[in-house]
Amino acid sequence: MSRSDVVIYHNPACGTSRNTLALLLEQGVEPIVVPYLKVGWTSALLQDLAARSGGSLRDLLRKRGTQADALGLTDAATPESALLAAMVNDPSLVDRPIVATEKGVALCRPPERALGLL
Asked: Does domain 3-117 have CATH number 3.40.920.10?
């Protein structure tokens, strides 16, 4: 796959994210690397990634090490609109790494989940 065919939404401080990037490189893939904590998210992008993953925004919510519980985001009754607003406002609330290709989107925990997208 060419560089423009694979995007990784990456946090270099995260071991799983670094391992996923390394796995892609080992496969001969040079992805577009998006440092999402620096560039942030848009509502449209998050909604698109969730839809293309076959899941929901809730599936992309990072709970550990964030304010998700304190903000009430882990409550099943919290509407997706509130999740979306919080995730756009605080990019750290989005779990990582997310890999997107023409085959789909996956939260790559474990990193090997990226292989199914190549």
From this structure: no
